[in-house]
């Protein structure tokens, strides 16, 4: 968990590669796919969520919790672990999802990792971010990697500045940071009280962050 731009997605992708029996579930990516899917163009609830999403605000907690709960059961039934990036986002979601995680995996196997960066770093990273366009991937990369193979799926990453569908994240950055402070921090506080947790200085380089994240996860799995 952490601010937009803290590196949650990047580290989750790397963890999933390190632990093949774990799946990276990107809540934001799942919401994006759902609200952008033409099959839901006539669904008033999804269209309402689409407006909220592209406005930079957090989606309706009950709706998001339903999506997440569905995937937890799906992966658990396949005996797969889950690495979340961007979930839970609100106190409601945290309180709704925790009992499901405990039922499926056991409280002792749940670890909360808080990735700490300043708002200034979050803004700078968002300005320099591009995202893989392959369906089901959406790997976050630095714009300097534009035109190069995606580290996750191998498809060429988009050239810097060509992702119109990602520009809203920059335009709505102030709103997104405010939403985190007012709505996600209470969820984080709740989970830190209930579960094992660590915090990582995510201002440092990606490799050093991953080393700390990996160490924490391995300790939790012992």
Condensed summary:
It contains nine helices and six strands; from the N terminus they run H-E-H-H-H-E-H-E-H-E-E-H-H-E-H. It has 222 residues and is an alpha/beta fold.
Instruction: Find the CATH superfamily of the domain at 8-119 and 179-221.
Output: P-loop containing nucleotide triphosphate hydrolases
Described by strand count, sense and barrel closure, the largest sheet is:
2 strands, parallel
What would CATH call the architecture of the domain at 8-119 and 179-221? 3-Layer(aba) Sandwich
Radius of gyration: 17 Å
State the low-pLDDT regions, or none. Answer: none
- Sketch the topology as an H/E string, one letter per element: HEHHHEHEHEEHHEH
Shape: globular
The helicity comes to 40-55%
Q: CATH class of the domain at 8-119 and 179-221, anyone?
A: Alpha Beta
Give the helix tally: 9
CATH topology of the domain at 8-119 and 179-221: Rossmann fold
Keywords: Kinase, Nucleotide biosynthesis, Nucleotide-binding, Transferase
GO molecular function: ATP binding; nucleobase-containing compound kinase activity
GO biological process, one term: nucleotide biosynthetic process
InterPro entries: Adenylat/UMP-CMP_kin, P-loop_NTPase
């Amino acid at each position: 968990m952490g601010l937009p731009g803290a590196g949650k997605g990047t580290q989750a992708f790397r963890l999933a590669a390190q632990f093949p029996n774990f799946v990276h579930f990107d809540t934001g990516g799942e919401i994006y796919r759902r609200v952008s899917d033409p099959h839901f163009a006539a669904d008033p609830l999804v269209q309402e969520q689409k407006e909220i999403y592209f406005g930079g605000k957090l989606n309706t907690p009950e709706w998001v919790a339903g999506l997440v709960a569905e995937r937890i059961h799906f992966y658990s039934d396949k005996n797969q672990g889950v690495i979340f990036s961007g979930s839970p986002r609100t106190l409601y979601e945290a309180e709704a999802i925790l009992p499901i995680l405990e039922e499926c995996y056991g409280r002792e196997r749940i670890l909360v990792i808080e990735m700490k960066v300043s708002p200034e770093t979050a803004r700078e990273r968002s300005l320099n971010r591009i995202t893989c366009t392959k369906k089901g991937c959406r790997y976050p990369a630095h714009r300097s990697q534009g035109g190069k193979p995606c580290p996750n799926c191998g498809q060429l990453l988009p050239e810097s500045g060509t992702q119109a569908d990602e520009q809203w994240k920059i335009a709505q950055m102030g709103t997104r940071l405010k939403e985190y402070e007012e709505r996600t921090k209470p969820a984080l506080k709740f989970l830190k009280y209930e579960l094992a947790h660590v915090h990582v200085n995510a201002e440092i380089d990606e490799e050093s962050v991953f080393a700390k994240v990996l160490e924490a996860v391995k300790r939790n799995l012992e």
